[in-house]
Design brief:
mainly alpha, two-stranded antiparallel sheet, about 10% strand
């Protein structure tokens, strides 16, 4: 049985919707009350789909690029949009702090940097 897409906003006033009843199709039990939506269900469907793709790709941005057919900056922007929509913040590195060798290699391993980018960053460490 295919279910309809779950709405998170009121179609009339755009306010956040609340769940007021849960039902079991197996035994016909119903639970009534007021329940908030899970955090991910509050996101627009495009960001939900992005997060599913991101997790499926195990957080490898290069793999997300391939799966979605978009560029690296687009993936990073969508990731930042999802983080912002979740009400979270990302830690920022002070501009004066430069990454060390192990951080650069970890970024390369995660697919966040190409080999050429990693080499350039490693060369910058040893002027």
């Amino acid at each position: 049985m295919k279910l309809n897409q779950f709405p998170s906003r009121c179609p009339v006033c755009s306010d956040a919707l609340r769940v007021t009843e849960l039902a079991c199709p197996g035994c016909d039990t119903s639970i009534r009350g007021t329940f908030g939506l899970p955090l991910l269900a509050q996101l627009p469907s495009d960001l939900q789909e992005f997060i599913v793709t991101f997790v499926t790709c195990r957080g490898n941005i290069r793999e997300v690029e391939k799966a979605l057919g978009v560029s690296y900056p687009t993936v990073r922007n969508r990731l930042e949009s999802a983080i912002e929509a979740l009400g979270r913040t990302t830690p920022t590195t002070p501009p004066s702090a430069s990454p060390n060798r192990s951080e650069i290699l970890a970024s390369l391993e995660r697919g966040e940097l190409s080999a050429a980018e990693a080499i350039a960053k490693l060369e910058d460490l040893n002027p």
